[in-house]
Amino acid sequence: MTTHTSRNLRTTQTAAPELAPIPFERLLRVELLKTVGTRAARWLLVASVVSIVGGLGIALIFAHDIDQSRTSYLSAAALGLTRVTPILLLMAMTGEWSQRTAMVTFTQEPRRSRVVAAKATVGLGLAAALAVLGGLAAQAAVFAARAGGRHVSAGLAHDGPRIIGYVLFVVLISLVGMAFGALVQNTPAAIVAFFALGGLANLFSIGALSAVGDWVNTGVTFGWILEGKWSGHGAQMIVSALLWVGLPLALGTRRANRREIR
User: Fold this and answer.
1) CA-to-CA distance for 229 and 213, rounded, in angstroms?
2) CA terminus-to-terminus distance, the chain
3) I need a labelling partner for 171 at 20 to 30 A (CA). Which of 97, 117, 124, 137 fits?
4) Sequence-ordered list of residues with C-beta below 8 angstroms from that of 255, at least 6 positions apart, any chain
5) H or E stretch including 256?
6) pTM value?
7) Phi then psi dihedrals of residue 151, to 5 deg
8) In terms of C-beta density within 10 A (0-12 exposed, 13-18 middle, 19 or more buried), how is residue 91 classed?
9) CA 61 to each of CA 48, 93, 199: distance values in angstroms, whole numbers, following the listed order
10) Please, are residues 214 and 239 in contact by the beta-carbon 8 Å criterion?
11) How far are the Cα atoms of 31, 152, 188, 246 from residue 258, in angstroms, in the given order?
């Protein structure tokens, strides 16, 4: 009887159905909502817009002290954007750990590297979108300056490298904040590290350290990108981007994969 029953159980038992993985585009939608859906994120987006307007306002008001060209207005928009946008992406990366939602997120998607990849993709797209918004605002400021009787140079052929550099500058600075969030995984500590290490890097612009600063100081290397000075600086730009974006993001992904969830 026991043997017969066991045989029947073995023949009637079916394997548990294998669950299909969560589509990556669904992860992207979820991470986008988590990035911009909180009250803090909305205020940071508002602050980004205010920073753009403020930077362009300064360029319009102090016209005699600022070169009147499209690229000058783009630089003003970029400097305004990069004061706030990195913090927004930083908070998106630290959200799971600071808000104690890691258990829910990584239960739904156990492959943590996919979640980090989705966050990075959303951050990249959001930074690019804000860069476009800043570019449109800069063009509006150019029109306003011309309407006020100022001559603002705007040759596309000449400004092409700087327009590309403007977009890359905004994206790279924003990704530095995201990478620090991925590495530190704590919002206050990541914000402090972002500003503190950025300030320490500026020390490499002093005296004999300037040769090292040409490789590690983003104020120099990313400044070349913003100004469209590609010739002769490509290696320094790549090394600086790998040091401040690639390395902390890779280490942060590795840490997220190994970190114990409590």
Assistant:
1) 16
2) 47
3) 97
4) 183, 185
5) helix 247-258
6) 0.84
7) -95, 110
8) buried
9) 20, 37, 29
10) no
11) 21, 54, 22, 19
